[in-house]
Design goal:
Layout (H helix, E strand, L loop, with lengths): L3 H35 L22 H9 L2 H32 L5 H10 L5 H14 L6 H5 L6 H12 L3 H9 L4 H12 L1 H17 L2 H6 L8 H11 L4 H22 L15
Length: 280
């Protein structure tokens, strides 16, 4: 006898996976098209109709041309340095700000938190001019620190880490205090390891935001030796009179480190086991 209930369940699961697969293909199609364009030879028409996804004569010459014609190694170094320092400083300052807002009691704590979160609604373009004036006045124009300055802390980061700190069981905090732990030691040795998934999540968001940032480096940097990869890719358009193969190759070079970072860090975005030993 055929079990129609099991068949309906299997068809439902198959339909869900089919829908998710279709969404994944639509999401990945621009990336696949970018890679395909970067591998096409000059003899191929990248604007033909109907479009051809697979290159008929794949070549890596576009990557070598980009790498040799512009100092992409320097751009890569600049982007890496700025992104890594931004992640480290952002995690440090956001964690320092989020901890007292989550675990300590003091007058006006909730209002301070509301004020910080409210700044998320303010577009960057509104604060860009006063931020630029401040950055120039303190002598950070044409410096790595000048590119990092607006991202030293973020309202989103403080919000995310505050919620993570609040999820840590109080029993762990009380046990650490009974063992004589200082407030700073409690924050460093107990709380930060307990919210590792949130820290990794924030690190990925901050890294991607810093790595792909175009507007602020364009404003604050005039020295081409300090250009980041987004500025270098934009320069490609002018250097080669908008050769889309070379622009695509430069774009692939610029996004490859982000993909590698995500593949490396995604295994750390898992629930922490810190609270597993605490029973209610």
């Amino acid at each position: 006898m055929i079990n129609w209930q099991n068949h309906k369940s299997e068809l439902k699961i198959l339909g869900i996976y089919g829908l998710l697969g279709a969404i994944a293909i639509l999401t990945l199609f621009p990336l696949l098209w970018l890679i395909s364009t970067s591998l096409k030879s000059p003899t191929e028409n990248i604007l033909q109709s109907p479009p051809q996804l697979l290159p008929s004569q794949p070549t890596l010459d576009n990557f070598s041309s980009v790498w040799q014609s512009l100092p992409f190694a320097q751009y890569l170094y600049n982007s890496t340095l700025v992104a890594v320092l931004t992640v480290i400083l952002n995690l440090l300052f956001c964690a320092l700000a989020a901890y007292p807002l989550a675990r300590l009691s003091f007058p006006g704590r909730d209002w301070i938190f509301i004020g910080i979160v409210s700044t998320i609604m303010i577009p960057f373009q509104i604060v860009m001019i006063p931020l630029y004036i401040l950055t120039v006045q303190i002598g950070l124009r044409n410096t790595y620190l000048g590119m990092i300055f607006p991202s030293l802390a973020s309202a989103f980061g403080i919000f995310l880490l505050r919620q993570a700190f609040m999820s840590v069981p109080k029993e762990i905090e009380e046990a650490a205090r009974m063992d004589g732990s200082s407030e700073l030691g409690l924050w460093w040795y107990i709380m930060l390891p307990a919210i590792r998934p949130a820290l990794v999540t924030l690190a990925i968001f901050v890294f991607i935001g810093s790595w792909s940032d175009f507007l602020w480096p364009l404003i604050i940097i005039q020295d081409e030796n300090l250009y980041t990869l987004p500025l270098g890719v934009a320069k490609l358009a002018g250097t080669f009179s908008l050769d889309w193969r070379l622009v695509a190759a430069g774009s692939v070079i610029s996004i490859a480190p982000v993909l590698v970072l995500f593949l490396f860090l995604q295994r750390y975005i898992v629930p922490t086991e810190t609270g597993s030993g605490v029973k209610g």
